[in-house]
Amino acid sequence: MSHPSCIMNPMAEAPAHLSPSSASAFDQCPRRWKFKYVDRLPEPPGQAAVVGTFAHEVLEHLCGLPAAERTIDRAKALARDLWPAQEAADDFIALELNTEGSRAFRWQAWLAIAGLWDLEDPATVDVVATEQKVTADLAGVPFLGIIDRLDRIDERLVVSDYKSGTLPRVRWREDKLQQVMLYAAAVEIAEGEQPETARLLYLGQQSIDVTVTDRKIEEATGLLSETWAGIGSACTTDEFAAKPGVLCGWCPFVGECPEGRAELTRRHAAGKLPSHAPAAALVA
Ligand code: SF4
């Protein structure tokens, strides 16, 4: 399914590929998606995201080593080796951390890295690939994803995705599971073999495992196709509906969005705006 009308419309050009994070962003709020993917407004990542990126990088290097070398001491050494580059990265500098803040950052990152051992001993894992880029046509959608890890367990392929954030409540997990199911669908096309399991590794917390089936892949790719059609339609009409809700409190573009600011004001007046939401300061 292509979107020629988007290409003809200079106001909103559809992306060449759709990633799970882009699809999820559009589903959450098309207006926010437009700010990020069409207008390309700057979106400085918060500390949690930068911590997660650093932890991912260390684990990627660790799991690229021969199995016997994937020890916690080696992970510590890798974190030390990679730290100077992290400290010099724009995203990290933008956090403007002082010495104490930087120490807290490193500790958070280490808790995430060491949290892998709460879930598994990486020295016992048969790692096939790390940070594997996959592209595939999924139900007519040009899909692009980067898989944290592809393993073989008991001869069967397993797709694993690291998560350094807090384990979501059960009702919020479906969206994350869709993501790994799409990875499994793309792997099946690329490798000619359907993975047996897709896993969300919530570092230091819990592994959420789901058996891959044709039906689940069909559901996930069907939803992806609906999202892609929604993006095409929004691009054609240049209408990106705002979906105000509690997430406006965490939206970096709320200053550009009248509906979002009205939502913040309403929630603040009703006592329903969490004080830790970054945007809460705008209405305090
Ligand atoms: S402030 Fe709320 S409604 Fe506006 S773009 Fe952000 S998430 Fe969407």
Structural class per helix/strand content? alpha+beta
Give the C-alpha Rg. Answer: 20 Å
CATH architecture assignment name of the domain at 126-233: Alpha-Beta Complex
Give the strand tally.
5
What is the level 1 CATH name of the domain at 126-233?
Answer: Alpha Beta
Biggest sheet strand order reads 1-2-3-4-5
Q: Which fold name fills CATH's third level, the topology of the domain at 126-233?
A: Lambda Exonuclease, Chain A
**Intertermini distance:** 46 Å
Largest sheet: 5 strands, mixed
Q: What do these coordinates show?
A:
The protein starts with a helix and ends in a 15-residue tail after the last helix. By secondary structure, the protein is an alpha+beta fold. Strands 1-2-3-4-5 form a five-stranded mixed β-sheet, with helices on both faces. Among the domains are: 47-122; 126-233, Lambda Exonuclease, Chain A, CATH 3.90.320. The protein has eleven helices and five strands, in the order H-H-H-H-H-H-H-H-E-E-E-H-E-E-H-H. Bound molecules: iron/sulfur cluster (SF4). Iron/sulfur cluster binds at residues 29, 31-32, 242-244, 247-248, 251, 253-254, 257, 259-260.
